[in-house]
């Protein structure tokens, strides 16, 4: 199986991508293996043999859509949480190796840095990545992991590689762990 983390961008261009029927934002093509792996059985039973696209809009309830088949799947149709579309923890950022936004932020709080990107990169280089199957977007997770690391460092007012923050000084919003 090929690794999405090692392949160049897909052939579709930004101008040819279909629009999500709900939010009207351009979708990203997703391979059938992603949908087959992540759809719940009743949703999988409705899967059409046509190209599907992932809706990247965080506030849009649509996860996958196929314009030709007028087929739509929502968050409730998936076996996993769609990190990009979630607001409550745990928010997955790496589906292959189990990193969440909370686990990344907690490591930063404890140590002043995160090893998630380096760990995932090592796994990718060893051929263990399966983002095209495990990640609802069908794409490499490193962008989302890097974003979570930057957010965690910024939330704690740290610079990369800085000292850990005592738990009593950790800023947290209501209901959110850091």
Textual characterization of the structure:
The protein is built from 6 helices and 6 strands; from the N terminus they run βααβββββαααα. Helix content is about 30%, strand content about 10%. It has helices at about 30-40, 40-45, 100-110, 115-125, 130-135, 140-155; strands at about 30, 50-55, 60-65, 70-75, 90-95, 100. With about 180 residues, the chain is of the alpha+beta class. The protein folds into 2 domains: about 30-75, N-terminal domain of TfIIb (Single Sheet), CATH 2.20.25; about 85-165, Arc Repressor Mutant, subunit A, CATH 1.10.10.
**Amino-to-carboxy terminus distance:** 36 Å
Output the structural class: alpha+beta
Number of strands: 6
Fourth CATH level, the homologous superfamily of the largest domain = BFD-like [2Fe-2S]-binding domain
What's this model, at a glance?
It contains six helices and six strands. The protein has 178 residues and is of the alpha+beta class. The protein folds into two domains: 50 residues, Single Sheet (N-terminal domain of TfIIb), CATH 2.20.25; 85 residues, Orthogonal Bundle (Arc Repressor Mutant, subunit A), CATH 1.10.10.
How are the SSEs placed, and which strands pair?
Elements: E1 28-30, H1 32-38, H2 41-44, E2 52-54, E3 62-66, E4 71-74, E5 92-94, E6 99-100, H3 101-111, H4 116-125, H5 131-134, H6 142-155
Antiparallel strand pairs: 1-2, 2-3, 3-4, 5-6
